[in-house]
Predict the structure of Transcriptional regulator with XRE-family HTH domain.
Amino acid sequence: MSKDLPENLRLLCSYHPSIAEVCRRLGANRSQFNRYLNGQTLPSLRLMRKICDFFGVEEAELLMPHSRFQELIRLKPQGGGADIERNQLRSESEKILQASLPRLEAYSGYYFTYYNSMSNPGKVLKGLTRIYPTSYSMNVKTLEVIGRRGHGGFTCKYQGGCFMLGDRLFITAMETLTGNEVIQIILYPSYTNRIRHLSGIMSGVSAHATRAPAATQIAMEFLGTQVNPRKSLALCGLFDPDDDEVPDMVKRMISGHSDPASHLLMAAPG
């Protein structure tokens, strides 16, 4: 085994208060990490990725001959706390995503999503969302057709992740076709064994030139784990709030609930 990797790891650790601190922030076992530093074994691919993210280096750089790595580290801007915090955020996010997997298995499947359109005020936008597990996290994909059903329109596609903190579901997703919007959704969980509807708050920006930040109630209607996505998407689009395509339960969930004392937009539990 090459001695470059352990020497490079020891060099990176020397920029931190202690090896114990590095292990704590990486979520790594101290005795196992010592074996990496001593060259007795190699980190797993997953831990190697976490180590590289934490220290702000690439895997190929970490495997460089030690003399070249020393020069590289000397020339790299020492971002100090900013870089460390950035990588720490990614590390913590990974922990949350993986810890959420068992609790989110019951939510896997397809949903119709309904919310008051930010780009077409006075209309309800109905989209198709899929929540599905991977070995790393619970992923989310959403497709929206911005237009009246059967009359075409442009498509928005969101991809992101879902996790659970406390007893609330959080979804963070990016619009991938334009790359200019991130949405955040916070949902009440299902309080019954059979999931029917989820409700919460969604924040994002309108598609108008103003790109005004906005928030609204959102409802998700569970369709099942096996559906025909093409046929389901054909049922999506913009609707009047009183349209029969918007179920009565959903209408109540997204009709607008605010606290006049605090001026907060509140979601109604499903």
About this structure: The chain has two domains: 4-78, 104-266. The radius of gyration is 23 Å. The chain has a mean pLDDT of 85.
